[in-house]
Specification:
Length: about 375
């Protein structure tokens, strides 16, 4: 009984002491937390903004007037006179095709033409001689008739011989002339065909691409060069049909050159229909080529095409989003405390990323100093 009494007294004394100890410890912790300096960060408030996600696609600038230079004959490339970036003049020789059969054929037809001409000349000479002989016989017959040594019938026969010689002459000369004309025609065709060995520029411009090399075999219709004329500049892009359908004629599109200089172009033509496996279509942009940052033939140009129509969305700076084990999260500032929040992200455009869930308008997002803080850290902003 006395033991229980002492235990009760001890308990009554210990309880107040324990409370005082707890209060003292708590005070120490609060003081320590308050004394810890906050991490300095940069923040920005988040509101609904007009958001238009974009995707870049690239291509080479060419002249609006352009052509693929192709040979009309089969053969081996004997000589290529121009490289990419070179300028050419109308009619300038830019390549030569070597086809041994053309030379052999031209040589053979030249010989045929020469032989036909010789035959024609010999025929004219031969039958002119025959006519002259018939005329001489007629003259002699008439003299004999006057002398009484020939009859009228002999004269008529001599006259008919002259007429027959003339008909034979005309017939043979006509046949020989036909042979000469045929040979000349064939030779002309062969010469024209041989001229096709020489590839000339159809107009003045810049070589934007060389498709083959010296010594390569090319078939008729296979491109050797791509040629663009100066003037209006055009860039062709192969992009998904779903993007093309959202584009309007003359819509302005931002263009970025290799040196990061930014200019603009406009939608000139589009064809969303394609039989390709990737279901892409063709869009052509043209530039008005201002004096500042002009687009030149051969420039490698990237264009930012809108993926969908503009909409209101929550968007944060792309660099404010962190990633860990496949999850995305951001830090927001709440009463000088950093709070880590998981978010679901959407598309990115112009350095901002759409937030689909996990963030509300008006929240303050930490954009700089992210590597110096953890969840629930004190911050200064």
């Amino acid at each position: 009984m006395l033991k229980k009494k002492y235990l009760l007294i001890f308990a009554l004394v210990s309880i107040p002491f324990g409370i005082l100890l707890a209060i003292s410890n708590s005070s120490d912790k609060i003081t320590a937390s308050t004394d810890t300096p906050g991490r300095k960060v940069v923040t920005t408030p988040i509101t609904l903004v007009e958001f238009s996600p974009q995707s870049p696609y690239c291509g080479f600038a060419v002249g609006a007037q352009r052509a693929e230079i192709v040979p009309e004959i089969n053969g081996t490339i004997q000589k290529l006179f121009k490289n990419e970036g070179d300028t050419v003049r109308t009619g300038e020789t830019i390549a030569i095709i070597d086809d041994s059969t053309i030379d052999a054929q031209a040589s053979g037809l030249a010989q045929v033409s020469s032989d036909s001409q010789k035959t024609y000349d010999d025929t004219k000479k031969l039958y002119a001689q025959k006519v002259d002989e018939a005329k001489a016989a007629l003259k002699k017959s008439k003299v004999s008739y006057d002398d009484g040594d020939a009859t009228r019938e002999d004269v008529k026969l001599a006259e008919e011989a002259v007429n027959s010689a003339k008909r034979a002459r005309d017939l043979q000369i006509s046949a020989a002339h036909i042979q000469v004309s045929s040979a000349e025609s064939q030779r002309s065709v062969a010469d024209s065909y041989a001229q096709k060995r020489i590839i000339r520029a159809p107009f003045s411009g810049t070589i934007t691409r060389r498709h083959t090399t010296t010594g390569s075999f090319v078939a008729a219709g296979t491109p050797i060069y791509s040629l663009s004329a100066p003037g209006a500049i055009e860039i062709e892009f192969n992009i998904p049909q779903r993007i093309i359908t959202n584009l309007a004629a003359n819509q302005k599109i931002d263009l970025i050159k290799e040196n990061s200089a930014i200019t603009s172009g406009f939608v000139y033509a589009k064809n969303p229909f394609s039989n390709s496996a990737d279901s892409n279509g063709i869009v052509r942009l043209r530039t008005k080529n201002p004096l500042e940052n002009p687009v030149l033939i051969g420039d490698y140009i990237c264009a930012k095409f809108p993926l969908e129509n503009p909409k209101e969305a929550l968007a944060v700076p792309e660099n404010s989003i962190l990633h860990e084990f496949g999850d995305s999260f951001i830090f927001v500032a709440q009463d000088s405390i950093a709070r880590k929040k998981n978010v679901t992200t959407g598309a990115t455009a112009e350095g901002r990323t759409e937030i689909l869930s996990g963030l509300q308008p008006g929240e303050i997002v930490i954009t700089q100093g992210l590597n110096e803080i953890d969840d629930n850290d004190l911050i200064i902003y």
